[in-house]
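Dear colleague,

Thank you for sharing your sequence with our group. We've completed the structure prediction you requested, and as agreed, I am returning the results in plain text so they can be pasted directly into your records. Please verify that the sequence below matches your submission; if there's any discrepancy, let me know and we will rerun it promptly.
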Amino acid sequence: MSNLKLGAEVVSAHDLLPKDGQGSSSPFVEVHFDGQIFRTTTKVKDLNPVWNESFYFNISDPDNLSNLNLEAYVYNHNKDNNSKTCLGKVRLTGTSFVPYYDAVVLYYPLEKRTMFSRAKGQLGLKVFVADDPSIIF
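Please find the predicted structure tokens below.
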């Protein structure tokens, strides 16, 4: 079993689509990798949220890392009916993952989830590979 981890820091988002009918959104991010999912906190009524939340994913097969994708979905949380609406997504390929000491925050344009959906804004992520996440803290 490898101790290799994929770190994903969800930093912030900018210029998100308003989805609540009142000119705002209550966004959160779900980060998916290798069958694992982590979720940020919800930022109520904020089109430019700041999270600064870090997550560490297990890498089941380090030799296959370049063939894996990390996907980050930005959702609006509707508290009235406890539902979520996608505001956009970012997909990063395993070939773009770098060691921790080379990682920087990059802002990625949000893509549409489906052909008929709308997306606007950017998501700031810092993604890296680390063999011992305890040294990062």
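Summary note from our side: Strands lie at 5-14, 27-33, 36-39, 50-58, 69-78, 83-93, 98-99, 106-109, 122-130.

Kind regards,
the structure core
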